[in-house]
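User: My advisor asked me to double-check a structure prediction for Transcription termination/antitermination protein NusA before group meeting. I don't want to rely on an old file, so could you generate it fresh from this sequence?
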Amino acid sequence: MAKKVETVNMVDRFAEFKELKNIDKTTMISVLEESFRKVLANMFDSDENFDVIMNPDKGDCEIYQNLKVVADDDVDNENMEIGLSEAREIDPECEIGEEVSKQIFFEKFGRRAILNLRQTLQSKILDLQKEAISSKFKELEGEIISGEVHQVWKREALLVDEDQNELIMPKDEQIPSDSFHKGDVVRAIVKRVDNQNNNPKIILSRTDDRFLRRLFEQEVPEIHDGLITIRAVARIPGERAKIAVESYDDRIDPVGACVGIKGSRIHGIVRELRNENIDVINYTANPQLFIQRALSPASISSIRLNEEEKKAEVFLHPEEVSLAIGKGGLNIRLATMLTGYTIDVYRDIEEGEEDIYLDEFRDEIDDWVIEQLKNIGLGTAKAVLNATPEKLEQADLEDDTVEHVLNVIRSEFED
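Assistant: Sure, here is a fresh prediction for Transcription termination/antitermination protein NusA from the sequence you gave:
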C-alpha cells in the first residue's frame, strides 16, 4: 500500500507542474499515459502488453503487464511470459496458456526511471505548449493585440503579452517613425505565425492595411455594428492613407461617422499611426466616380477608362495636376492602390490650344522616360516645354535625357 501512495505523490507532483503550464486535465492525463508508455517501451522493449490506467478523479496511476502463463522451465522472455508458480501468486486459479496481469510499481525501478519519465513528460508538455501557442495566435491573425516592449534590436523588436508569450515585430512591419523603448505598451495586429520545426514565431505588424481597418472598427461603432463597411484601404505607412467606406443605412453619413465630430474619432487613429494623414471617401461601384473621389482634393475634368487593362487616363486643368499627383506622388499612388486602376494624369488641353500628348512621341522617346515625366504631371508636350528646371529634376532623369526630350518636342512644334 505504501508503494501506491508513492505513485500518487509522484503523479501529484506532475499535476502541480501541469498547473504551471496551463494544460487542461484531460490533456494532462493523456500526456502522462503516453509518457509512461514511452518509458516502459524503453525498459521492456515494448509497451504493447501493458495497460496504463490513469485515474483522473483520484489522481493516481496503475500499470499492469499482461503476461502469458508458461511452465516454470519454459520462460524464454520475461517481458512477455511468466512461470506458472509466479503466476499463481497473482491468480491462484490460472492455468498454462492463459494470461495474467501483473501490477507494475513504476517507482521501484529507481531514480533514473523516474527522471526519464519526468524528462519525457516535460518534452511532451513543451510540444503541447508550442502547439497551443501556435493555435491561439493563428486564430488571432489579423486582430489587434497589445504587448510590452521587452527588447529592441536593429532589425526587430521583442514584445511580450500578458501571458508572457514572445512576439516579434520586424523593422519593416513598424511605422517608419515608430520609436520603441523597453516597457512601452504597443498595439499591433498579428500578421502571421511562422511555425518552423514546431517552434512558433509570432509576427506582429503596424504597417499592414488590416491594422488601419481594425483601428476604425474599434473607434467607429457603426463599423463595429456592421452599419458601415470598409470597402477598400490603401496605405503608405506613416505618410498617408485612403479608406473607402459605404453605409447600408441612408440615414448614416459614412464619412462623417468615421471622422466624428470635429475629428474626434479619426484623431485617435491618426495619433496611433504616428500622424499618418487619412482621407476617408465614399465608396461607389462606378469606377469613374470612384477614381474621381480617390484623387481628391484634385478636381477632375474628364476620365477615359480601359476596363480590360484596368487603366484610367485622367484629364485635369493645369493648376489641378499637382494636387492630383500629391507631394512625392503620394496621392496618385494611393488612388491607384485604392481603386485598382493604373492612373495616368494629363493636363487638360483647352479648346484652341495646340498641344500633343507625350504618348505620341514613343517612337522617339523611350517609354520609361515618358512614364517618369507623366508621374510628375507632365503628360503633354507643352507641359514639358513650360516646366521649370526644378520641376524637370523631379523626374529623376539624366541631363542628356532631358535635353533629348526637349529637342524632340521642340522639333515637333517647329515642324
